[in-house]
Amino acid sequence: MLGVHVGGSWNVTQAAWPHMKKQKFGRVIMTTSLMMIGMETQSTYGTAKMALVGLTRAIAHEGKEHNIHVNSLAPSGYTPLAERALQNEQILSIMKRFMPAAEVAPPVLWLVHEDCAVNGESFTAQGRRVGRLFIAETPGFLGPEDRDWNMEIIRDNWEKVVDETGYAVHTDIKESGPRMFAQVAGAKSGISTEMVIEAFQPKAS
Fold it and tell me: Which InterPro entries match (predicted)?
């Protein structure tokens, strides 16, 4: 499963990459699935599809200086496979009426269009509905420095950990890294974007 979905996507993109880089233009769409959110009996498939989100975000940053944009799309539509796999006639009826597979094409065409500047993002497409999927983090809870750090403190403040008010949508480590250090150490951190970039550079051998 991982070999087909992750390995296959990697191999095809790797083969096309030098040509896109040479012509200073390229568009890549990774086909993922809402199964990555989680469902029983779908652990391997969901894992493979979530891995494509990570691959999308990583190579999107590598390609942007060459005008290569990489995004992922989780499509849903009425297909012969859906007809065989789904056991609910009402769901199949709705999909057949409102989610013909061909209607996934326009979002794909936009994402690969030369005028589309979107890069490193994930989207859903079901019929004529298109949405954005994103990874976000809550402000969280910062424990006190004048007390022992233990499980009970986390337990007693768990509502703050999971409170979605003021959540941040991450774009990359360069953006989220300084914010993380500022949240942990406050104004004392002094960590800049440049410092985060430098920290993740390969060490000289």
Answer: NAD(P)-bd_dom_sf (IPR036291), Peroxisomal_Beta-Oxidation (IPR051687), SDR_fam (IPR002347)
* Same domain membership, residue 51 and residue 76: yes
The pTM score is: 0.84
Active site residue 167: no
CA 84 – CA 104 distance, rounded (Å): 20
The answer to which of 59-63, 111-115, 143-147 has the lowest mean pLDDT is 143-147
Selected catalytic residue, list 10, 17, 45, 98 = 45
Check whether residue 87 and residue 29 sit in a common domain. Answer: yes
CA nearest to 161, candidates 141, 181, 135: 141
Instruction: Name which residue leads in pLDDT, 85 or 152.
Output: 152
> Could you tell me the residue range of the domain that residue 151 belongs to?
136-200
